[in-house]
Design goal:
The chain is mainly alpha-helical. It has one domain. Keywords: Membrane, Signal, Transmembrane, Transmembrane helix.
Length: 175
């Protein structure tokens, strides 16, 4: 039985939805919030449809799926170098770095897909070596779809992480 990179990739994607993905000033957003509200934010969100299109095409058009995976990873990964230049839409905030662990797990999901697809890119579509989207993968996809409405519930709100207050030193004259 071949290693099912699809299930691992979808598991990483679903996990990223429950982790803290980004911080902006006084808000910390989970991945589910970024996914649900990403349409309003801009181009980085479009990595998600590219990723899911690659999943759909992984057996019928493996080379196209690989290119779609590359495009999704490149589009989503642009936030890191743009952050180095100070041009990212998710700047560092007073609460800490702008991009948090959920964002990197989201990137990992796309990277796992690319590595697995690269391995099987030359196999024919009817080959038994290429993994199928089996019931675990469909369960994970259902979990992803059900997570989007969950983003609008009070349960999903991330507690505010306040920045430490600067304290003055009385012994050294307030310096």
């Amino acid at each position: 039985m071949p290693f099912n990179y699809l299930t691992l990739s979808l598991a990483c994607y679903l996990t990223s939805l429950f982790l803290q993905a980004c911080a902006r000033e006084h808000d910390v957003m989970r991945g589910m919030h970024a996914l649900a509200l990403g349409v309003l934010n801009g181009s980085f969100w479009f990595a998600n449809p590219l990723y899911f299109a690659a999943l759909v095409m992984h057996r019928t058009k493996p080379q196209v799926a690989l290119y779609l995976g590359y495009a999704a990873l490149a589009l989503s990964g642009l936030m890191v170098p743009l952050g180095w230049l100070g041009l990212t839409p998710v700047p560092d905030s007073a609460n800490g770095p702008g991009l948090l662990i959920g964002y990197y797990v989201w990137l990992l999901a796309m990277l796992v897909f690319i590595l697995g697809q690269w391995r099987y890119r030359h196999e024919p579509a009817d080959s038994s070596r290429v993994p199928l989207l089996g019931w675990p993968a469909w369960g994970l996809i259902a979990g992803i779809v059900l997570t989007v409405p969950l983003a609008f519930t009070p349960w999903s709100k991330v507690p505010f992480r306040s920045a430490p207050e600067p304290t003055s030193c009385i012994e050294c004259g307030g310096n």
